[in-house]
Amino acid sequence: MANEHPSVRARTAPDRPRRRDIVITALLGLMVLLVLLIGGVLEPGAWLAASLAFSALAFIYFLTAVTRGAPRPSAQITRPVVSSELESANAMLEKIAVPVLLIGPGGRIERANPAARAFLALGAEGGLLSTSLRQPRVLEAVSAALRGERGTVVEYASLAPIESHVRAFVEPLRMPVAGPMPWRAMLVLADETSSKRAERMRADFLANASHELRTPLASLSGFIDTLRGPARDDEEARDRFLTIMREQTDRMRRLIDDLLSLSRVEMNEHLPPSGEADLAAIARDVVDSLRPMADARAITFELSLPDAPARITGDRDQVYEVVENLVENAIKYSPEGAIVAIEALDNCTRDIAEHAPERLAPQSARLLLAGPPFDPRQRYGVLRVRDNGAGIDRRYLPRLSERFYRVDGQKSGPTAGTGLGLAIVKHIITRHRGGFSVESATGTGSAFSVFLPKPVPDADAAARVLADTASGVDAG
């Protein structure tokens, strides 16, 4: 017995008196039956049957007492197996890219994998789910699961600060714990923003293209019929009509290009970019590419750019498109021989980025068309493009970034655009978590400013990535 497991000795020692009592009780019972047989109370057959039954029952109880103290190998073996399975499950959960949370009594977050912590910007486990995800339908489904009710699927969407679409899967889990609250709720969040945007993008593209292309296609059809009929032999009319047809064809090409560009931007607007770019270098490249267009109208550029790189967090191609749209508009809407001023500032606070430049004129109006989430630690790179055109009346400023919106007087003629340029600028700036503002005064000109976030220090990078990701999830 020296090598016997302690748990076996602990269980066997108390059972020895029990076995002795069973044997004594069985002997006393047989003696009673024997006395009854001698006294003539029992027949020999009945005595034999009763003695056998009593002996069998006593033997069964004796065996029960002997085996009760034996060790339970399953308990000794199962415990490490279960522990290993839990460790494997936890390791697998940590690697899953889908946000998964385990919600306990009172709506407290007991477990959250890294994807969930990034998606909801969780500081630490143990907090209330309602403080990170303020969606009543999801919270109601979690409460129902904590009561042991059936799981459910909840879809919710938010429009501010960034449009997002999420499907939440809620399932009850019964935990092997004692107590009045054994139920937990498993919450899985699936981000379906990209698929929703793709569906809407296809519908919007067809609607916008069919609407905006109808006019130039009608013009082309009319000119073609005229050239095939009355103007068949009229060289002067043919040349004039072909020139107009070329202009309409170019407009349709620009319109399709802008629609595709806008669709691509909207597709990924909820995902902030992670690359870096030099804002000053982009401005120089844009000026070089548009210089022929400016020379054709005798327009000169006045540059005020820092010599050192103005690093920002962003997609270089999209930032280039922003600057190109703003400079091209400034060239188109300035009179011949005018000056287009381009200025870049680096490492500015939000207040300076939004309000630093002096006003164009005492009566000018300034409006913020898109703004970033508030963060006092964030610094920005700023680009400001000013023209010397006719200016824009203050009543039109709020609608400048709408699709296909063009101010009266800009809807026709050689400077007529597609009405999508500033909408593209706004969506790109919104994706970059930056700001976009306009200032204008009638008769003085207009100034468009964009400010884009600078890269954060390495020590704060992880926390800021969580905050940027969470800005696409509705917390309010």
UniProtKB/TrEMBL annotation:
It comes from the Bacteria. InterPro entries: BphY/WalK/GraS-like, HATPase_C_sf, HATPase_dom, His_kinase_dom, HisK_dim/P_dom, HisK_dim/P_sf, Sig_transdc_His_kin-like_C. Keywords: ATP-binding, Kinase, Membrane, Nucleotide-binding, Phosphoprotein, Transferase, Transmembrane, Transmembrane helix, Two-component regulatory system. Pfam families: HATPase_c, HisKA. Its EC number is 2.7.13.3. The keyword Transferase applies. It is an enzyme of class 2 (transferase). GO terms for molecular function: kinase activity. The keyword ATP-binding applies. Residues 208-456 form the Histidine kinase domain. It catalyses: ATP + protein L-histidine = ADP + protein N-phospho-L-histidine. The chain crosses the membrane at residues 21-41, 47-66. PROSITE patterns: HIS_KIN (PS50109). SUPFAM superfamilies: ATPase domain of HSP90 chaperone/DNA topoisomerase II/histidine kinase, Homodimeric domain of signal transducing histidine kinase. This is histidine kinase.
